[in-house]
Amino acid sequence: MTRQEIEKQIARKVVDDALAAGYTIDVFDGEEFAVKNSTDAEQIFAAMFSTDDDRLFLTRDGKTAWVWFIYGNSGWDVISDYNVSLEEVLKGAMKLADELEDKLDA
After folding, report:
1. Using an 8 Å Cβ cutoff, are 60 and 88 in contact?
2. Where are the beta strands (DSSP E) in 1-106?
3. Residue 86, CB-side half-sphere exposure with 13 Å CA sphere
4. Does this model's pTM top 0.90?
5. Residues in contact with 58: Cβ distance below 8 Å, sequence separation at least 6, in sequence order
6. Stronger pLDDT, 1 or 45, i.e. the higher one
7. What pLDDT, in 10s, does the model give residues 49-91?
8. What span, in angstroms and rounded, lies between the C-alpha atoms of 8 and 82?
9. Residue 106 clears pLDDT 70, i.e. is over it
10. How far is 105 from 46, CA to CA, in rounded Å?
11. Angle 87-105/3-20 helices, nearest 10 degrees?
């Protein structure tokens, strides 16, 4: 499994879980918002990975938090930082990242 495949699996889990939890998502690629206020997983995912990092802004109930993805490291560590208010929605992606890291180390 390549680093890019690992990064995409984890990012897909974040997007799917955030949408399932009722968030809308903005994709900021470091220069502009490539997607705003979307609930379309394919649109969101297509806007990601065009730069070295992306920040997803997740909004629900009038509150916004963010997840920062940095690409090009080990893959499983693609989630660089996030607002602690998102710990619950990121739980599945963090578990997946740990599993993928363990698989690579085996």
Report:
1. no
2. 24-28, 33-38, 53-60, 63-70, 79-82
3. 27
4. yes
5. 18, 23, 24, 25, 64, 65, 66, 67, 86, 89
6. 45
7. 999 999 999 999 999 999 999 999 999 999 999 999 999 999 9
8. 17
9. no
10. 30
11. 160
Answer whether 33's CB lies under 8 Å from 27's CB.
Answer: yes
Please calculate the CA angle 58-32-89 and round it to the nearest 5 degrees: 15
Tokens of 48: 């990601």
93 and 14 Cβ atoms separated by less than 8 Å = yes
Per-residue model confidence as pLDDT tens digits over 2-52: 899 999 999 999 999 999 999 999 999 989 999 999 999 999 999 999 999
How many Cβ atoms sit within 10 Å of the Cβ of residue 28?
19
Residue 56 structure tokens: 């997803």
